[in-house]
Amino acid sequence: MSTNTNIPSSAGPSDGTTLTEVLEAYATAGFTGSFSVTEDSQLQCHECEKVSAPAAVQMASLRRLEGASDPDDMFAVVAITCPVCASTGTLILGFGPTAPPEDGDVLRALQDVRSEGDLPANSAPGEAHGDVASDAR
After folding, report:
1. Nearest to 120 by CA among 4, 44, 31
2. Where are the beta strands (DSSP E) in 25-86?
3. How far apart are CA 7 and CA 71, in angstroms?
4. Taking residues 104-112, what's their average pLDDT?
5. Which residues on neighbouring strands pair with residue 44, listed in sequence order?
6. What does DSSP assign to residue 42?
7. Which of 127, 129, 133 is nearest to 74 (CA)?
8. Number of H helices and number of E strands within the chain?
9. What is the mean predicted confidence (pLDDT) over 99-112?
10. For 121, what's the count of Cα atoms within 13 Å in the CB-facing half-sphere?
11. From CA 73, how far away is CA 33, in angstroms rounded?
12. Are the C-beta atoms of 68 and 35 separated by less than 8 Å?
């Protein structure tokens, strides 16, 4: 199972926001669970441990992060809901040329419901709203 353990907790975009800050903002908004990508491009919920096809999972928000010191550090933090247990949480996906292919498969397959919820579509809760998510897909 791929869990993106190579993602540094201090990774952040060029605007100075850290990965930790983005995850904390989503947790404050109720996205307290976590998910990981399996080797066969499926999603595992860490609450119920069930594996689901990404096409069955709803994406409520997406926040892109690009490393200030290394532009190859490109991540997407995605706020999603488990289709089995309804747990809400975050998933960290790599994107761009150095990302694992499984991460790109998952990102392309998620149900994009960002326009239907209360969360900012392209920012973590509490951040200024951006319109950069379409670049990550």
Report:
1. 31
2. 33-37, 43-45, 51-52, 58-66, 74-81
3. 13
4. 94
5. 36, 51
6. -
7. 133
8. 2, 7
9. 94
10. 11
11. 23
12. no
For the chain, where are the E strands, in sequence order? 33-37, 43-45, 51-52, 58-66, 74-81, 88-94, 111-112
Nearest to 5 by CA among 97, 71, 75: 75
- Residue 34 pairs with which residues in a beta bridge? 90
Kindly report the pTM of this predicted structure: 0.76
Closest CA to 82 of 49, 57, 105, 106: 57
Residue 136 pLDDT > 60, yes or no? Answer: no
Q: Which tokens go with 132? A: 């950069």
> Of 25, 28, 36, which Cα lies nearest the Cα of 91?
36
Q: How many CA atoms lie within 13 A of 34 on its CB side?
A: 7
- Of the pLDDT bands very low, low, confident and very high (cuts 50, 70, 90), residue 117 is confident
87, 83, 73: which is closest to 34 by C-alpha? 87
> Which pairing describes strands 111-112 and 58-66: parallel, antiparallel, or unpaired?
parallel
